[in-house]
Design goal:
Length: 241
């Protein structure tokens, strides 16, 4: 889909994935506790979701908490979980008002029971919303997601419901948390780091990457448009000549 933004015609990526990095450094620069950085990061996430919808992005996936983030201090992990608790409750009304479908990817079974319940509720009430799909990765690891998919497929093979020889790439895609969702066209990582950090390991095979020094709480609509402009300059060949 193309859209004219400030007089410029841009091809809008269907699916944008974001590694929201730099909350801690944003807080440190201001002599604030790290938790304040995450709080600002949460606000940025909500604003960017609205901007993405407005720009015509159809799927937005963000990395909120990785399988490795449990290694952080108890205080920081508790702070992020409390932000999540509040977010999952507050966003029900806003998502319905804005016709936004929200889903969580990752191994949610390790989360507190009340958070799991809020996720189930939010996913259920927004399931028919179709202006944008918002995917939040929580307790998510790309390798862990592939491990879980392999377990599902091997269990089906052992039960005789699928033939192991029939396993193709589509069946693997369909066994991931992102089943049915097109692979991201554009990945954005903020804060100057240039790594994948176990995010969407399978799905990012042909994705364009955009890295910016901007710290996540400072990321805004103009930064998002800059990333889309960069995407427009890429020549995507998917392995072809
Ligand atoms: C990376 O910054 C950020 C995270 C690990 C957490 C991301 C979480 C949010 C944006 C808020 C989430 C909101 C909800 C509702 C879950 P960092 O802490 O690694 O920053 P640093 O690299 O500067 O230390």
């Amino acid at each position: 889909m193309t859209k004219v933004i400030n007089g410029e015609e841009l091809n809008i990526p269907t699916h944008v994935a974001i590694i929201m990095d730099g909350n801690g450094r944003w807080a440190k620069k201001r002599h604030l506790p790290r938790g304040m950085g995450h709080r600002e990061g949460g606000k940025t996430m909500e604003q960017i979701l609205e901007d993405a919808k407005d720009l015509g992005i159809r799927y937005l996936t963000v990395y909120a908490f990785s399988t490795e983030n449990w290694k952080r201090s108890v205080e920081e992990v508790t702070g992020i979980m409390n932000l999540l608790r509040k977010y999952l409750k507050d966003c029900v009304e806003r998502s319905l008002k804005n016709n936004m479908r929200v889903r969580v990817i990752g191994d949610t079974s390790a989360l507190a029971e009340d958070i799991q319940e809020s996720i189930r509720h939010l996913e259920e009430v927004t399931k028919d919303c179709d202006s944008i799909d918002f995917l939040i990765a929580i307790n998510y690891g790309g390798r862990d997601e592939i491990r879980r998919a392999v377990k599902k497929l091997t269990a089906q093979a052992a039960a005789g419901t699928i033939d192991p020889d029939s396993i193709d790439e589509q069946m693997i895609s369909d066994s991931l948390d992102t089943a049915g969702i097109p692979d991201p066209d554009l990945l954005i990582r903020t804060s100057g780091e240039e790594r994948l950090s176990n995010f969407l390991t399978w799905q990012l095979a042909y994705t364009e990457f955009y890295f910016t020094d901007c710290l996540w709480p400072d990321f805004d609509r103009d930064e998002l448009v800059t990333a889309i402009r960069y995407y427009n300059k890429r020549d995507r060949r998917f392995g072809g000549a």
